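Backbones bend. We report:
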Amino acid sequence: MSSKYSVSEPPRGSPAERRVPGYQAPPRLNREWTGQGAVFLCAVLWSTAGLFIKLIDWNPLVIAGGRSLVAAVFMAALRFMVPGREKKPFKLSQLWAGGTAYALTMVLFVVANKMTSAANAILLQYSAPVWAALFGWVLAGEKPRKAHWISLVMVTGGLVLFFRDGLGNGSFAGDSIALAAGIFFGANSAIMRVQKGEPSDSLLFAHILAAAICVPFALVHPPAFSAESIAAILFLGLIQIGLASLLFSYGIKRLPAVQAMLTATAEPVLNPVWVFLAVGERPPPASIFGGLVIVAAVLVSTLGKPNTS
């Protein structure tokens, strides 16, 4: 059996179902497809960030802190207050590692956007699938398939095309910080694959940590509250990052780290779609073509023959 199916994968079916004579666990292909769908929906929610952040006239770090604070409260309520929800034990070192990696991803990306061009920041952060392939191989024993390597090359080329008009005009420091965000993003997916217990716990901890880092900046840059900004920050915390975190946690238990990160590259592709639908801002032809290449890359990685060695 492939090592990729031995990581962070609980027995399929509920305990009651497994006691029924003749019960057969759901096929692994179905598990991968449900995981793929969850991560794609997560990417759809992530992609709405740009549209709603434009509605909030706050310092970027204050927005990141407020969003994570709302997400942390939402996820903690589900984790500890919903009756009947199973409380799985966790390993503290994995919780700290995964939570810190994702918190740094969020904070460093915000900082990078202030220090380099938005296109550079997004492109370098989405080097994450490469790092997920490497960390997943080392930490989880998930050797990438040939289709994954082909998809990684296609995604890189598609992202360059997608952001071609905005590339450049950055700074070495800002680009380095964006690259670090991509490394931590990829590492987080691999850590969640080997995490014992519920992977969403590390994302909950990440939001607590990000809020602790960023919310104090509100003392230096006091936010101007309005009905629009409050509604936007609630959407960002509850839906765009809170619900998305739960979807990603569900998906990462069913997919190799590299596959999850390849699917997540739908986020930068969908971002301008929402802008076009909302304000009619049409992306240039190179961006459209680059987006199609990224979509094709995700399909290649998804439909490639699973490694059953």
In short: The radius of gyration is 19 Å.
